[in-house]
Specification:
There is one protein chain. This protein is an alpha/beta fold. The chain has helices at residues 2-14, 17-24, 28-42, 60-85, 100-117, 130-138, 180-183, 196-207, 221-229, 239-247, 276-288, and strands at residues 47-49, 56-58, 92-98, 121-127, 144-148, 156-170, 187-191, 214-218, 235-238, 252-254, 260-269. It has three domains: 2-85, Orthogonal Bundle (Arc Repressor Mutant, subunit A), CATH 1.10.10.10; 92-162 and 264-288, D-Maltodextrin-Binding Protein, domain 2; 165-260, 3-Layer(aba) Sandwich (D-Maltodextrin-Binding Protein, domain 2), CATH 3.40.190. Helix 1 crosses helix 3 and helix 1 packs across helix 4. Pfam families: HTH_1 (PF00126), LysR_substrate (PF03466). One of its GO terms (molecular function) is transcription cis-regulatory region binding. Residues 1-57 form the HTH lysR-type domain.
Length: 291
């Protein structure tokens, strides 16, 4: 009956017999047969189909079966992973998605330490903005996503692993401190929509009741930093990045009345059991993400 339940889960989630068949690599008549067997087993209608079979709706009994089937699937995945990994080393493929700030400025140093502990792992890293990392995770193209801020999406399980302070930077020669009124007269350099840094910048402006006079948008942190270095304007940037740039004499660190910060969050699919490789990564992120 397990195959029938797996088919039922896909039909409910895909809202289509055809799409479920394609996802499971079985024929559509087989999908129909699996659903009919389940309905005979429970003596209840689980799915109502229109005459043209272009639309379907899940009955109350169907939702009870769906919820139970999802729990069974999760428990089976956990059991399978646990048994297979008994006594084994941490090894195999681990696909990590990371937002630009994390992927470009934090992750390389962390992975240098991590790989010394687990040399048998094969790491693949994809770097993009937060929105695209969430899309990759949802489509199972990565195992775990490391992003900035909250996603608010219940499809993801979230674990915080670092608090990143954001600081204001300006061109060399900028004042050491700026008031709210000063922030409204300058040009702001910021990231694109979909970036976690962009969200935090917008929240910072709102918190300080600042209406920016002008903005210039770039899609990488390096470009933002370089724009500030070349006197194009001011930016809110990760303290980790900003301090490196300031130490190199590229920008000035500027004190503001209000501080800004964001959480770095590890995302996995809430519907999937966390593998041993992913759990090991999460444990290490919490323990020593930044040295």
């Amino acid at each position: 009956m397990w195959e029938e339940l797996k088919t039922f889960i896909e039909v409910v989630e895909q809202q289509s017999f055809t799409k479920a068949a394609q996802k499971l690599n079985i024929s559509q008549p087989t999908v129909s047969l699996h659903i009919r067997r389940l309905e005979e087993c429970f003596n209840a209608v689980l799915i109502r189909r229109s005459k043209k079979q272009k639309q379907l709706s899940v009955t109350y009994a169907g939702m009870i079966v769906y919820d139970a089937a999802k729990q069974m699937k999760s428990l089976w995945q956990f059991t399978e992973i646990t048994v297979k990994e008994l006594g084994s080393e941490i090894k195999g493929r681990l696909a990590i998605g990371a937002s630009l700030t994390i992927g470009e400025y934090f992750l390389p140093a962390f992975l240098g330490r991590f790989m010394k502990r687990y040399p048998q792992l094969e790491i693949e890293v994809k770097i993009d903005n937060t929105v695209h990392i969430c899309e990759l995770l949802q489509s199972n193209k990565i195992d775990v996503g490391l992003v900035e801020g909250e996603t608010g999406d219940k499809k993801f399980h979230k674990e915080e692993f670092y608090i990143d302070r954001l600081v204001l930077i300006g061109p060399i020669g900028s004042p050491k401190k700026m008031q709210r009124r000063d922030l409204e007269t300058v040009t702001w350099i910021t990231r694109e929509q979909g970036s976690g840094t962009r969200v935090q910048w917008e929240e910072f402006l709102e918190k300080n009741s600042v209406l920016p006079a002008k903005t210039i948008i770039f899609n990488t942190n390096f470009a933002v930093k370089e724009a500030v270095r070349n006197d194009l304007g001011y930016a809110l940037l990760s303290e980790h990045i900003a301090k490196q740039a300031a130490a190199a004499g590229e920008v000035e660190l500027i004190e503001t009345q209000e501080e800004a910060g964001r959480k770095f969050v590890c995302l996995t699919l809430a519907s999937e059991t966390m593998s041993r490789n992913v759990q090991t990564l999460v444990d290490n992120l919490k323990r020593d993400f930044v040295k």
